[in-house]
Write a structure and sequence with these properties.
The chain is of the alpha/beta class. It has 16 helices and 10 strands. The strands form 2 sheets. It has a 7-stranded parallel beta sheet, sandwiched between helices.
Length: about 450
């Protein structure tokens, strides 16, 4: 073990030192009991002469005490260490045994972390969750179920289940299972698997696993919980609604398109987004999580097809409005072709406010400050999302930070994003106290 790992065992809150001290106390009391027995034997029995030398009676008593305590401590530490190694070798694979103290430290600190609810879908939500799971296990991901394309869409049409794709991405992002298991969960079968491309061709193994689990457990809610347990997920993944919903968009050219996968292909900007039917009931778990949350993060993700569909579930939008949590909106780092061409950060947030009937829900709009010096590749059909400081953000405060993934500049960097979110959350009380201490300026 490295010196850093040894010192980490001494950190406050691990729940280890108290039991080691109790063990030491037990050994000391036992040693005291043996001392009484030996003293009684010493005064009532005549020992052979060699005992004099074996028990070091020619050495002063205080030195004998130091020697025996030191020897006993060394033997005890070595025995406990070897016992732990024997037990750990059964519970953990060899390549992860050295990280035991890190796992204990993370588990103890994350259990005391804030209750965070992340709302969205697609790659943006899973990127955020992958970073936040290092700070707390009290995570709830509220996920859209309006997907009707790809593997999820096929399973939705064929088996009449809510689409599992975004649920699968969140489970993989929050999983603490072996990397190989997570990679297997995200594995996608080749499009041409099976005759004529039928069968499992194009399906994700994780999608099939979740749907199969729903068949075994009887419903999708229980399937998500059991799948999360199997993959050691840190947190909870909750569909925004359990109803079969379809997205519909009224476009600027006056037409209306139906289906999440059709909106980016419509060729006209979206004027208004709707869910059909419009009166669907929300998932009670999602509403409860929003009401009890300490921090709510909306986005990132596709504005019209990942983030907004959750908030259009009426009870969820109302729960977001009345929740006393600290609320952030995370703007995308790049526009999405067919959805948000030409949008800046203020346009993204204004779209959410408009669809929530003017609700100015966020305390902070968090946007990317690291804009590229060169245009993005033409094949991406995307541009960086700028965040003008003089734009209208309602009552929200604009905060800029370096959030972009340098290798894939149309995505967030999970660790940078999570660090910025948590910094804003932990600084919220400091800012509030500072405002209270500064006297109001005279007009």
């Amino acid at each position: 073990m490295s010196r850093q790992s040894i010192m980490k065992w001494l950190y406050v809150g691990l729940g280890v030192k108290r039991w080691l001290l109790l063990l030491a106390l037990g050994v000391a009391v036992m040693g005291l009991g043996f001392a009484y027995l030996l003293r009684e034997a010493y005064v009532s029995y005549t020992f052979p002469s060699w005992v004099y030398w074996a028990t070091l009676q020619f050495v002063p008593r205080w030195l004998r005490g130091v020697l025996f305590v030191s020897l006993a401590s060394g033997i005890s530490i070595y025995a406990v260490w070897r016992l732990n190694r024997s037990l750990i070798s059964v519970l953990l694979p060899a390549d992860r045994q050295d990280a035991l103290v890190d796992r204990i430290y993370s588990a103890r600190t994350q259990q005391r972390g804030p209750k965070i609810v992340a709302i969205g879908g697609g790659t943006g939500l899973s990127t955020l969750l992958r970073g936040l799971k290092s700070y707390t296990v009290n995570l709830t991901a509220v996920v859209t179920v309006a997907d009707d394309g790809g593997s999820s869409g096929r399973l939705r049409r064929d088996l009449d289940v809510i689409p599992p794709g975004d649920l699968r991405n969140c489970i993989a992002a929050l999983s603490d299972a072996e990397p190989l298991v997570t990679k297997l969960f995200q594995y996608r079968f080749d499009e041409h698997t099976g005759e004529g491309g039928s069968g499992v061709g194009g399906h994700s193994f994780g999608n099939l696993f979740i749907v199969a689990m729903a068949g075994v457990t009887g419903n999708m809610e229980e399937a998500i919980r059991e799948t999360s347990r199997v993959l050691a997920v840190r947190g909870a993944i909750v569909p925004s609604t359990l109803a079969n919903v379809t997205l519909a968009a009224k476009l600027e050219n006056g037409t209306t398109v139906h289906g999440e996968s059709q909106i980016p292909l419509a060729g006209s900007p979206v004027r208004e987004l709707m869910i059909e039917p419009g009166n669907v009931r929300s998932n009670p778990e999602a509403v409860r999580a929003l009401i009890e949350a300490d921090l709510i993060v909306v986005g990132p993700g596709s504005l019209y097809t990942s983030v907004l569909p959750n908030l259009l579930v009426r009870e969820l939008g109302e729960a977001l409005r009345i929740s006393r949590a600290y609320k952030l909106y995370v703007s995308n780092v790049a526009t999405q072709h067919g959805e948000t061409d030409g949008y800046d950060a203020a346009d993204h947030y204004a779209t959410l406010r408009r669809h929530l009937r003017g609700t100015d829900f966020a305390h902070v709009v968090l946007a990317n400050s690291n804009l590229p010096s060169e245009p993005l590749p033409a094949e991406w059909r995307s541009q960086p999302v700028v965040a003008p400081g003089d734009a209208d953000y309602g009552h929200a405060r604009l905060v800029l930070a370096d959030l972009v993934d340098q290798e894939v500049r149309y995505r967030h960097h999970s660790e940078r994003l999570a660090s910025a979110v948590m910094r804003l959350y932990f600084e919220r009380d400091l800012r509030a106290r500072a405002r209270e201490q500064v006297p109001a300026l005279a007009p």
